[in-house]
Amino acid sequence: MWSQLDDLDFSDDLALLSHNHQQMQEKTSDLHHTSMQVGLTLNKQKTKIMRINAGTDEPVKIEGEELEEVESFTYLGSVMDKSGGTDADVKTRIGKARPAFNMLKKVWSSREIGTSTKVRLFNSNVKSVLLYGVETWRTTKASMKKIQTFINQCLRRILRIH
Q1: Mean pLDDT (10-residue bins), the chain, 162 residues
Q2: Statement to judge: residues 48 and 88 lie in one domain
Q3: In angstroms, rounded to a whole number, what is the distance separating the alpha carbons of residues 68 and 46?
Q4: ∠ CA 154-138-28, rounded to 5°
Q5: Is 65 helix (H, G, I), strand (E, B) or coil?
Q6: Could you give the CA distance from residue 121 to residue 108 in angstroms, rounded to a whole number?
Q7: Are 53 and 95 part of one and the same domain?
């Protein structure tokens, strides 16, 4: 006998996992009814469906209203998509790390702050944003190259290597 993961819960986010349409419809309906019993309502506009290798394209409904189907969604800051890859998430993390780096532009150009301090600030304030959720990524040469390229660009600016 084996167990299967049915859902992922965190704060006000919930991801239901199912093997077939009937199972997903039942879980969604049960969640809706149970929520109503305790005075909560599901926001139908915010509730999304993503199918991977589905045998049917029959819609999942709440009170007869079809839920929107999406190609990707963000869960706990990480981008999930149908391909199961990490490219979208890597791109998103780089997009969030770049402003974190640019916010410290005055620090990077300062001649009064030492290089070791700048690198420590980079690691704590930029790299932490860049690598958030990395433990869930499927590491590929391409994704690692993108990350390393971004890190190298930042370090070159910090070290004034042109």
Answers
A1: 65 82 92 92 89 87 93 81 83 95 97 96 97 86 95 96 88
A2: no
A3: 9
A4: 115
A5: strand
A6: 10
A7: no
| Contact predicate 77/132, CB 8 Å | yes
Residues 55 and 110 in one domain: no
Ramachandran class of 63: left when φ > 0, alpha when ψ lies in -120 to 50, beta otherwise: left
Residues with Cβ within 8 Å of residue 21, at least 6 apart in sequence:
54, 55, 56, 58, 60
Q: What span, in angstroms and rounded, lies between the C-alpha atoms of 29 and 37?
A: 12
Domain count, the chain: 2
CA distance 107 to 144: 27
Please check whether residue 2 lies inside any domain of the structure: no
pLDDT digits (tens, 9 = 90+) for 7-54: 777 667 788 888 889 999 999 999 999 999 999 888 888 889 988 888
Q: Same domain, yes or no, for 61 and 89?
A: no
Same domain, 16 and 51: yes
E strands present in the chain: 7-10, 13-16, 48-49, 61-62, 65-66, 68-69, 72-75, 78-81
Instruction: From 47, 70, 93, give the residue that closes a domain.
Output: 70
**For strand 68-69 and strand 72-75, is the pairing parallel, antiparallel, or unpaired?**
unpaired
Domain residue limits at 130: 84-158
